[in-house]
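Consider the tokenized backbone below.
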């Protein structure tokens, strides 16, 4: 049996999903949808997708589907997820869960009977998974600190080709929400902990946009771990994401490029492999989502699991405005 899925929103990330879906044997992309009919048609031809739509309601009404993958502006996550859920479809949401915690909580409450996942794919990254499992099993001892660096670069076309990226109302935020939330999500999952409070600074350099292009934040978890995160989309040259974890018994350093590496210091750890095979984290995330829907095997990021990262980002944003330490709005 194969899962019949439609891709909604035919932008850059959707292209990666369509390509990697070819390597997920039980996944079949049967349709795509975009408000720009020409872009939807070109996307369908490029990825050999049989059915093309420019209206989301028509897709849900006419196409025989098991699930939809939503790669749409953040302000559409809640309403489009609700529509799919009403039709009995499973949903894989491109991160983040929503624009803010209130929307995220509403989404979770209203789709509790449906399977809705969020594509925080770094949980399925082989080295990040191994590090998280080492933390969860206590192999580094009590975790004192996690330091995350996201030194990325974006060209002007990032905002020109998807103008919603520049709008605070539509996106909910910039580099911290759209990019760095990947790693906040990973950190809370690795720690099995939740954010309690945060302090932060944000700035908009290089582009005339409403969202931040640089963010520095520190989050304290309920158990006391400090998570420091720096996220940028204005580095002159893009560098590798790095994660450093320091615990009572040892430390670990993760780097994504040029080659995926994970090094432990002070402890010997046998790296645990992700629950599914594959050559890319996004491929594994797709395969795991398929197994969740078809076999009821647990998916690592059901919608409720994505809420802590959203709450932490929101607290950093509030702190950047007030200049004070802000508690997270999270239940």
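A designed sequence for it:
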């Amino acid at each position: 049996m194969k899962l019949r899925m439609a891709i909604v929103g035919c932008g850059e990330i959707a292209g990666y999903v369509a390509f990697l879906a070819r390597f997920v044997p039980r996944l079949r992309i049967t349709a795509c949808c975009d408000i720009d009919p020409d872009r939807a048609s070109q996307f369908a031809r490029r990825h050999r997708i049989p059915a093309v739509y420019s209206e989301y309601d028509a897709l849900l009404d006419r196409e025989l589907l098991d699930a939809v993958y939503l790669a749409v502006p953040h302000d559409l996550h809640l309403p489009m997820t609700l529509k799919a859920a009403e039709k009995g479809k499973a949903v894989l949401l491109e991160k983040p869960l929503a624009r803010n915690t209130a929307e995220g909580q509403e989404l979770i409450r209203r789709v509790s009977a449906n399977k809705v996942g969020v594509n925080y794919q770094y949980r399925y990254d082989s080295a990040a998974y191994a590090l998280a499992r080492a933390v969860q099993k206590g192999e580094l001892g009590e975790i004192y600190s996690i330091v995350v660096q996201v030194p990325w670069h974006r060209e002007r076309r990032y905002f020109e080709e998807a103008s919603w990226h520049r709008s605070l109302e539509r996106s909910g935020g910039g580099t911290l929400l759209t990019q760095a939330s990947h790693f906040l999500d990973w950190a809370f999952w690795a720690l099995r902990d939740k954010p309690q409070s945060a302090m932060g600074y944000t700035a908009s350099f290089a582009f005339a946009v409403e969202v931040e292009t640089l963010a520095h934040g520190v989050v304290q978890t309920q158990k006391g771990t400090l998570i420091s995160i720096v996220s940028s989309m204005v580095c002159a040259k893009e560098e590798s994401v790095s994660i450093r974890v320091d615990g009572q018994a040892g430390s670990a350093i993760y780097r994504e490029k040029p080659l995926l590496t994970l090094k432990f210091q002070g402890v010997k750890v046998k790296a645990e492999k992700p629950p599914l095979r594959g050559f890319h984290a996004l491929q594994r995330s797709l395969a795991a989502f398929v197994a969740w829907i078809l076999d009821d095997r647990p998916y690592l990021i059901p919608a409720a699991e994505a809420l802590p990262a959203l709450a932490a980002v929101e607290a950093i944003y509030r702190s950047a405005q007030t200049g004070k330490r802000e508690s997270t709005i999270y239940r």
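The chain is about 35% helix and 25% strand.
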